[in-house]
Amino acid sequence: MTTGSLTDQLATIAGESALSTWTEPSSARELPLLTPPDEESCVRALQLATENQLALIPIGLGGKTSQTRAAKRADFALSMRGVAGVEAYEPGDGTVTVRAGTTMSELQAVVNAGGHRLTPDVPLPDRSTIGGVIAAGQSGFDRLRFGPIRNHVLGLRVLLGDGTGALTGGRLVKNVTGYDLQRLYAGSRGSLCLIVEASLRLFPLPESELVFTGQTPSLELAMESLRRAGELPLTWDTLSIAGQSGCYRVLAALSGRDAMLSSHRSNVDACIAELDSLQTFEGELARTARDSARDAELTGGWPHLRLLCRPSELSRQSELIFSALRELSESPPRIQVHPRIATLDLWLSEPDATRRSEQLIELFEVAATHSLHIEWLGSQRALAQELAASDTTTPALRLMTKLQSSLDPAGVFARGRFLGGL
Q1: CA 129, 132, 133, 134 torsion: positive or negative?
Q2: What number does CATH give the domain 86-204?
Q3: Taking the model in full, what pTM does it have?
Q4: Quick one: pLDDT band at residue 203, thresholds 50, 70, 90?
Q5: DSSP codes joined into one string, 319-379
Q6: Partners of 99 in the β-ladder
Q7: Which CATH number fits domain 305-377: 3.30.70, 3.30.43, 1.20.120, 3.20.20?
Q8: What are the tens digits of pLDDT across the range 31-69?
Q9: Residue 376, strand partner residues
Q10: Radius of gyration from C-alpha coordinates of the chain
């Protein structure tokens, strides 16, 4: 099918106003973009793709597609942004059912007004749709307290590659039945299905919030301060460190009943007393400070690398990465650390592309030598070719390939965007 006839067919499905263009970040190729206004149009688009052996890339607002590789073949992109809105909100049950194209900020406003908080608390929520967050398996700034997004997805309605609808889970906690396929779809990044609707578990808004911040030139002191805070008998929302060599910002966020927060405030102050520029924020000021730190994570774009390990191994493994970087470049990386979750995100600051590729190759070699688990999260266009071609065959990859072939046998959802050609 030629580009002209394809755009004509897409316009027939949803109208000229639903058509635009989209550039695939990893290849810079321009594709027709269809933003259907309703679910029926999505079904027809999938049926068109199946009947004409076309491949499409599902997106929300497209903010996470820079992390994927160039598709082996892609004929058009399909955005779910037009399929938006809250379908059902049950304050008494603490659940909400929402269409996939709803932004996280839109959904957050609805549930906050009803006395609930939404998790995950993702950075830049006005740039993320709930469908995109679930498809990417994206965690939020509050993962320490609430865990990953898949834990709170009660049910999903999805469309398979041929347009067939499928329902997994349910809308309420009590009527979730069958296989937990929503956990399979969460994190599948549009390789298995098109998410249309999601039902989520909510939590009550807290009576009060506290945010403690401080600064230090010493990463070791920052880590030690949060280690002490983490040992207190408290359920923390966030414990994080952000910055570059010589200037690290520490943030600790709590929420809950006023009496509980007041009783532990002096204990937290003692844990972080050695930090500089100490500040404590309450209520609305605490929410503003937390949101500012949350959004700062992605203001400069997605991190290039993420180190994942056990909390007890974080200091040792981080130092191996930092030592390698010090030998390779005079430009220190910007980092974001969540010590209790044991994640370290790095933004490489080396301006020269060739030297940055050399850094990456060396870092992955260090990881292989010391059995470190590091993931590439940055733009695939910036990934060294030696690393882009380093796929390996593993039992997990074989299982994922089998699942993809079973759920999308016609290859409607563009392949080759992920590890192993998935």
Answers
A1: positive
A2: 3.30.465.10
A3: 0.94
A4: very high
A5: HHHHHHHHHH-SSPPEEEEETTTTEEEEE-----HHHHHHHHHHHHHHHHHTT-EEEE-S-
A6: 197
A7: 3.30.70
A8: 999 999 999 999 999 999 999 999 999 999 998 998 888
A9: 305
A10: 22
